[in-house]
Design a protein that fits this description.
Helix content is about 15%, strand content about 30%. It is globular and about 55 Å long. A hairpin with a 5-residue loop joins strand 2 and strand 3 (about 60). The chain has helices spanning about 5-15, 75-80, 85, 165-180, and strands at about 35-40, 45-50, 60, 65, 95-100, 115-120, 125, 135, 145, 145-150, 155, 160-165, 190-195, 200-205. By secondary structure, it is an alpha+beta fold. Strands 4-3-2-5-6-11 form a 6-stranded mixed β-sheet, with helices on one face. The protein has a single domain, classed as D-amino Acid Aminotransferase, Chain A, domain 1 (2-Layer Sandwich). The N and C termini lie far apart (about 60 Å).
Length: about 220
């Protein structure tokens, strides 16, 4: 006896009798908006990363490719390999940051080839002499504390840390506009801010100039 289309469709919906059952896609969980955020200064340099494998291999990259001292990006790979021993303290993983300074985008008043690598993941690290603080986590029952930053690295400056509120973003922008860069005190043309939402694990950027314009790829 041939089953009608309605019966076949119902059996498929229940997962019975038909091999062409459509895979069910679960709706993703949504993060609570009123949760901790970290607002940091957005530095205008070039994106860079360091990758350390479990086997101890060391790689350097730009925003879109691996680089080497022979095929470099503003000298980052050369600098990283010269400081490899210190940078290995970052541990296994991929570590993203901004490579900025002399001759690289805005320059920030640095001269004679001076450039700095400022890591983005500010919650993980503390600078020399600072007391490790508890790191924010999506699950407040999990306690993690900051680790020591390698001496050759910097962190992007934190402008605010607390419950997410767009007013805090505007306050951070106004502070930069009025007082200049925190990454390079005295430099009067900072780029903007990045607001990282901890529970959502997502970051948003706002620039002081041309924020409404779309940046080319």
């Amino acid at each position: 006896m041939q089953r009608n289309r309605r019966t076949v469709a119902w059996d498929s919906y229940r997962g019975l009798g038909d091999s062409r059952v459509v895979e069910f896609i679960k709706f993703p969980k949504m993060a609570r908006l009123r949760r901790e955020c970290i607002i940091s200064e957005k530095i205008d340099g070039t994106n860079a990363c360091i990758r350390i494998t479990e086997d101890g291999e060391f790689y350097t990259g730009s925003r879109s490719r691996w680089i080497t001292p022979e095929d470099d990006n503003y000298g980052f790979a050369k600098w990283a390999n010269a400081n490899r021993e210190d940078l290995m303290l970052l541990g296994v993983g991929t570590h993203f940051g901004e490579w900025w300074g002399s001759g690289c985008q805005r320059g920030y008043g640095l001269t004679n080839g001076e450039r700095r690598f400022s890591l983005f993941n500010v919650a993980r690290w503390c600078m020399a002499g600072e007391t490790p603080q508890r790191r924010p986590t999506a699950d407040p029952r999990i306690e993690k504390y900051q680790e020591r930053l390698p001496s050759c690295c910097y962190l992007v400056p934190v402008l605010f840390r607390g419950l997410f509120d767009t007013a805090r973003v505007e306050e951070a922008l106004e502070d930069l506009r009025a007082n200049g860069s925190k990454a390079s005190p005295g430099f009067g043309r900072p780029e903007g801010v990045v607001c990282y939402h901890v529970a959502g694990n997502v970051g948003f950027k706002v620039t002081l100039e041309k924020d409404a314009e779309r940046k080319s790829a």
